[in-house]
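Hey, weird one. I pasted the Galactose oxidase sequence into the form twice and got a warning about non-standard characters only the second time. First submission, copied straight from the form history:
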Amino acid sequence: MSSSLTPSLIAAALSVLPSAGVAGISTTLLPQVPDERGFAGAFTGVQDHILLAGGGANFPDGRMPWDGGTKVWHDKLFSLDLSKPDATWQEIGKLPAANGYGVSLTVPEGVLLIGGGDAARNFREVHLLTLEDTTPRFRALPLLPEPLAQMCGAMIGRKVHLCGGIVKPDSTTASSKHWVLDLDAMENGWKEEAGLPAPSRILATAAAVDESFFVMGGCSLAPDDQGKPKRTYLQDAWMFKDGRWTQLADMPRPAVGAATPAPVVNHSLLLVSGDDGTQVGIAKPEEHKGFARDVHRYDLVSGTWSKDGMLTLPPPVTLAVAPWKDGTIFFNGEVRPGVRTNQVFILHPDR
């Protein structure tokens, strides 16, 4: 039986329908970003009711790196009016440079774009992205003390906290440094706080609850026999409060490139997606089954982890997220090695 519905019409119809998860989560699809491939390592955030997203990297011709494909970094900037159910994505300009794998954070003034990099180098630049009518503006903020990409970060009040990352795209060791920028005292620049007393790491998950900063998982790096970076998957969890780090209960599984900053629900936080390392080294990367679907909740009161549901959508890693009302917007990401998605959805946790 044939159907008159085109894929684009089906996607549009689905975009306004809730998609049930199980146990503690559900998802709502938003319109797909207007790029066939989608992006990993993009930046995103919300100003008023406008979702902003840009940058990131993909393989535009669809060829994977093991087939000779070339990874390309992008500078396109898109917007979506979240107040209009029938809104579509608009391309509204460009980032200051093609950039990906930095940290983006939503603040009252707009969206912070912190660090990142491209194929040749990582960046120190930090910008505040705002919209004036429909025109993007970029205000330069204090430079990072060193180039940094693949770090994690979150906001505690008016202070930006960053941890981990690498200073060069081909680094074989990661950082455990912890940097803080007070948005109300930017003349003081970035200040170094106590470093994470654990393996240095990239692609960790950050979170902020009240006055506490959390860093969880990711992977450490070391040179292999050929001098290339080799990953060790991590599942430890740490909390920084009152100037010192405290180790928490380990996560139920390793998680590299999970949603960060992690969604926060009351006095708990959610571990969503991430590469758990169980398929590393498979003979045929194209047969990868995708990343972790299980969602876990850490309760700050009991200090315990519990399963909170399963993602029914393809779980993305190295993605950008942004808070929106009672949920968290997930923008694109990587759903299998080398394979991006153009999906955008809101994760709704059970409160």
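That's the output from the first submission. The warning seems to come from a hidden character in my clipboard, not from the data itself. Helices lie at 7-14.
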